[in-house]
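Field notebook, page 323. I keep forgetting to write these up properly, so this time I am using the form the group agreed on. The chain and the ligand, DP6, are recorded exactly as supplied. Prediction of the bound pose follows.
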Amino acid sequence: MMKATARAHTNIALVKYWGKKDPTLMLPQTDSLSLTLDRFYTTTSVEFDPTSAADQIQIDQAPAAPNVAQRVSQFLDLVRPQGCFARVASVNNVPMAAGLASSASAFAALAAAASWAQGLHPSRTELSRLARRGSGSATRSIFGGLVEWHAGHDDQSSFAEPIQEHVDFGLEMLAILLDTRQKKIGSRRGMQHVVATSPYYPTWREVVAHDMAAMKLAIAAQDIDQIGHLAQTNALRMHALNLAADPGFTYFNAATLKAMETIDHLRETGVSCYYTMDAGPNVKVIYDRRDRETILTALTPQFGADHLVVAKPGPGVEKLTDE
Ligand code: DP6
């Protein structure tokens, strides 16, 4: 059989990855830590066809844009049987490229489907290393729940590992969808510009080292208030790198700032909730599931129920059966 289908879920970093030290091997500057979510995922089929003359790549039932197709083909070059092209069909249950980490679920699913389609049985560590070559954050989407990505120093040593695959306490995330259009500055370009020009970058490495240790302690203590506090501070410091770059830039828009203010205000009234943002304007709220209804009630009048998506901890990459 030369065909396999895999499903992988997105993850949102609680301690962010923002910068590479090796863009070819995709080695990050620092460790990072994330939560895989159940609500957003990508399902990808890969079929190798020895008679085909080129890769055929469909995303959400349409031919992939040339730049996306090229990125997928270059990734397939790492795993394909010699000279064998593939048919790839990928369906996203994620608003693409809006800071909801579609590349994480996409390359985790692609890494698994491309391997399984050849009858290979890589370990999840091996899949994590392979997914990394497609997109850094995809390294973590091989695993479910709370996941740590060890930065490492070469291809072998840079992979993710679960901290708690089945999250057994009330940690939950709610996405506030403010703008689901393509982001203006891709994360790859944004982080490269920051590493090259942001004077705060050396401090960021120290921030992450501290936050990784503190976050693991907070997870072990199941202290959601502390997890949220650390995640919010870490996200703001990541975004401060962007403002301090030359030229400076930001992923926030007016609605992002309004949402941040709303969450801060809600917390001041006694509801434990925090936010995090990635390479896009959308805001993710971190809270204990027992406060879900209170938070939804507070946010619905401002953002509308359609723009609020509750996500629970989700699973690692899964094999789907092909007919
Ligand atoms: C802000 O994984 O999208 O979401 O490795 O260049 O594909 P590439 O970048 P990507 O960057 C994710 C950045 C982030 C933080 C994170 O997920 O840790």
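OBSERVATIONS:
- Residues 13, 16-18, 26, 32, 101, 103, 135-137, 187-188, 278-279 surround DP6 (CB under 6 Å).
- The first helix runs from residue 66 to 76.
FOLLOW-UP: compare against the apo run.
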